[in-house]
Amino acid sequence: MDRLARGFAWVQAPWGPVVTCLALSPIAVHGWTTRALALERPDDQCTAEWSALAGHAELTYADLSRLTQVHGRDIVQIQGPGTAGLRADGQSTALSGVLLAIRVADCVPLLVGDVRTGAIAAVHAGWRGTAAGIARDAIAHMQGHYGTRPADVIAAIGPSIGPCSYVVGEEVRDAFRQSGWTGRQIASWFAHVENGSTPTAQRATSTITLDLWRANRDQLVEAGVPEQSVYVAELCTACNPDAFYSYRRDGKGTGRMVGFIARRQ
């Protein structure tokens, strides 16, 4: 297992280890699960696991808010517990008693907290959402709905596929260009590597890698979040098979980790 980056720690939940961001802890009960919470079946067949997750935040299964994630940029405001099925890739609330949850198996699980208002958000950022600017949009969403000031935001990127493993095709870089990102930004987010030099390169003919961590971090800073308030766990899901599921490494049938966050009472 790779070591955690600055500002992160392991905590022990009833089912096993959870990654947390220390700066978010005063605002919210939160974290990123590992394979120890075995979400390997459809949600309706994993009620015990979801209930355990809710219990970790001193909430119930009925307090969960989950999305139908579509690899887009939409973010929805949650105004009560028990939400399910909304088609979006980010959600926010200023309420306590609601557990926001997003599922990932390589994509970036971004958790956001406002230290002044207590508003929180959970965002799923795959390459499509990242190209569309969902991290930047999340801050604008919180400004519009809760009066959040970017300077008051703590943002944390949990375990996800790292630039060491994320080999992509030229069409992915083209999508970022078409979304209007500058040449300098694209040059800092994409790199060329030799085939076979990453754990997943043998599955692709491309020699391009994408740094989702840096792309989302840079978007948050561009949106006004102080650079020192953006935390990246730097744990690659593809490189740590004992701890994390990985769609790129294991294929479509792999399980999911959860990024979760609930405002403290």
> Spatial order of the strands in the main sheet?
5-7-10-9-11-15
Query: Which of globular, elongated, flat, extended, rod-shaped describes the shape?
Result: globular
The class by helix and strand makeup works out as alpha/beta
Q: At the first level of CATH, what is the class?
A: Alpha Beta
What is the CA-CA span between the terminal residues? 34 Å
Going by CATH, what is the homologous superfamily? Answer: CNF1/YfiH-like putative cysteine hydrolases
Any low-confidence stretches, pLDDT <50, length ≥5? Answer: none
Total discrete domains: 1
Please work out how many helical segments DSSP would assign. Answer: 7
Helix percent band: 10-25%
Oligomer: single chain
Number of strands: 16
Report on the biggest sheet. Answer: 6 strands, mixed
Radius of gyration: 17 Å
Strand content: 25-35%
Give a verbal description of the structure:
By secondary structure, the protein is an alpha/beta fold. The chain has one domain: CNF1/YfiH-like putative cysteine hydrolases (4-Layer Sandwich). The chain has 7 helices and 16 strands. A 6-stranded mixed β-sheet has the order 5-7-10-9-11-15. It has a 5-stranded mixed β-sheet with strand order 3-16-8-4-6. Strand 9 (108-114) and strand 10 (120-125) form a beta hairpin. The longest helix is centred in the middle third of the chain and has 13 residues, at 134-146. It is globular and about 45 Å long. 46% of the residues are buried.
